[in-house]
Design brief:
The chain is an all-alpha fold and 123 residues long. The protein contains five helices and no strands.
């Protein structure tokens, strides 16, 4: 696989994961906006899905070609989410914040595993 096709595969993978995370978020909110859900009793499932989507969107924004490769963006975003998660655990934040950061870090871990598989398939 050439560098260009590898980059395209990575971009496609990220887009697919982001679409899946968005679908999961819509399902978790029953199609309601996050603002509407936020005014009601927000469940950890909604915050987990939101965290997944936000983390993947952060990588996609950082991997738009102007700010390095998707792997570079993943590294930066993962470090940021690790700090965020540590802060949430340190200050014993509520269940919603814990679910949010767990969703984000789980999504980033999944993306890292998938990118490793894509890189392995390229050889």
């Amino acid at each position: 696989m050439t560098t260009h096709s590898s980059a395209a595969a990575t971009s496609d993978l990220l887009a697919d994961l982001l679409t899946q995370a968005e679908g999961d978020l819509v399902a978790a909110t029953n199609g309601s906006s996050l603002c509407a859900v936020g005014r009601s009793a927000t469940t950890p499932a909604v915050k987990y899905a939101e965290g997944r989507w936000v983390a993947l969107r952060d990588v996609a924004r950082g991997a738009d070609g102007r700010d390095g490769t998707p792997a570079d963006a993943l590294s930066r975003v993962s470090a940021e989410w690790a700090r965020r998660g540590a802060s949430v655990r340190t200050r014993t934040a509520g269940e919603a914040w814990l679910a949010y950061t767990t969703g984000g870090t789980d999504a980033l871990d999944g993306l890292r595993r998938a990118l490793t598989e894509v890189a392995g398939d390229a050889h």
